Amino acid sequence: MVGRFPHLSDLLCCEAPSQAGPNPIMAIHKVKLFSGTSNPDLAAKIADYLNVILGSATVKRFSDGEIFVQINENVRGRDVFIIQPSSPPTNDHLMELLIMVDALRRASAGRITAVIPYFGYSRQDRKEAGRTPITAKLVADLLEATRIQRVLTMDLHSGQTQGFFNIPVDNIYASPVLLNALRNRGVENAVVVSPDVGGVVRARSYAKRLNTELAIIDKRRPKANVAEIHHIIGDIDGKDCLIVDDMVDTAGTLTKAAEKLMEHGARSVVAACTHGVLSGPAVERIENSVLSALLVTDTLRLSDHAAACSKIESHTVSNLLGEAIRRISDEESLSSLFV
Q: What is the pTM of this model?
């Protein structure tokens, strides 16, 4: 059966196409879409793309902080997708997801897929010192303990996190959306910059698709959320620099990198990061930085403070995630989404 969007480029439009009546693909497979409290706006856009109505669930907290979930409609035998990024407060939203999965499983859902656009704890994917945890693996174990059948996520911090699971994990990429946004800004005199050695593969992929040169920042991180920039590898003199990364958290590294690039002769600096965590003083740092713009996606819901920042632009990935959900439900290949 042919999908509604045979070409990947069609997924990049901001508005989901209208269609009279229920989507026959979704009706046949009895898909149910539920949202936690982490990012209901993204869930609503995905539901709009799929032309389905979000399932009804009650999620509330008791006075002592415990989370209560009740599914308010029949899900017996249904193909259920729960949309819940583990955004701050990470622990609350992760626990909420686990409880929702348990409630759906006890309600006899046919298959449960956790849609986690932003996978919290993904940076803790290895032992960096003695007697430290690998928390990404712990989170994978917790999710599997609920007996979910599948995970759909976006731009994992490191690909090996998929190996922490013993169930299928689909890690799709926001690059089609961010590439489109960068092209709209103009890339004739641009150079793609990797903020560290670990991001070279991602940056090279962007440079290839934008037909630009590549530069690399030699960075050292003495402790979490602190970075020291030592060298810049590549020609950036007089160029418009495009920094690409999977996430921006406190924005300290990003704003220092932008400042260093300008000191070395860059004409302008724009950053494109999939996950806009933007914790602590991030928004103030971005507003006061030499960055021309920071492009993020809506895998995480922006705070009112971040949304009001003139330099922060949010671009939706709802169509990409919606198409991935449709293909998973129809047992179709996701290969063309792995760009």
A: 0.90
